[in-house]
Amino acid sequence: MCTLERKGNIFILTLTGPGEHRLNPTLIDSIRSALNQIRAAVTTTATSSSPSALITTAHGKFFSNGYDLSWAQSSQSRLELMDSKLQSLVADLISLPMPTIAAVSGHASAAGFILALSHDYLLMRRDRGFIYMSELDIELLLPRWFLALIESKVGSPAARRDLLLRADRVKADVAVAKGIIDSAHDSAEETVEAAVILGEELVARKWNGHVYAQIRKDLLSDLYKECHESTKKIIFNYLIRNSKINK
What we know:
Layout: E1 2-7, E2 10-15, H1 25-42, E3 43-45, E4 48-49, E5 53-58, E6 62-64, H2 69-72, H3 76-95, E7 100-104, E8 107-109, H4 111-117, E9 121-125, E10 131-132, H5 135-138, H6 144-153, H7 157-164, H8 172-177, E11 183-185, H9 188-203, H10 209-219, H11 221-245
Parallel strand pairs: 2-5, 5-7, 6-8, 7-9, 8-10, 9-11
Antiparallel strand pairs: 1-2, 3-4
Helix pairs in contact: 1-3, 3-11
């Protein structure tokens, strides 16, 4: 599912196994549990935390191939639940008291790209993999909060068009040129190594993590509010519907 490793003040969260790392409630909950462990490990007081950084990466061909649509296909409420849980995960990342780095080690598609884009920095391997918003090709509408995140993180209108209205499969060097990611590297291993070097540089700045997180929340205030608040209603409605079905 996922593992969490600590190297000094660098936390490395890895999606494990050879599969596509499809985002379903079980995997999302596992990632959120790891983030809670990190938050508890670095928080010293309500206003202070030890300087740290998070790197998220994955094993195998895929960073994440998006939502687990096979799990969700039985009901619309399952898709809503999955979406609300990913919103909660993104809210966790936005409020995490440290810089966050996605080391994209393979294909990052649809919700999998959204997960990567939710980090402060995005590094990617150039020898294999692409980022891809597949919704146009598979005839699915994008959640409004997906669009809000992409608008806040991808500055070029042309780059947003190519991602969303052309469904381009964008490789690392092109993604750097378009301003979608920060850097490209020759292998998965080199991508993670570069992420660790970047993480160490950021930790060395010795920023107050809570101040860092508050500035990030203010910077992404509309997105954070939507992710933080709308999920409660969706999960509540899902639980009510299922309790009625099971009676």
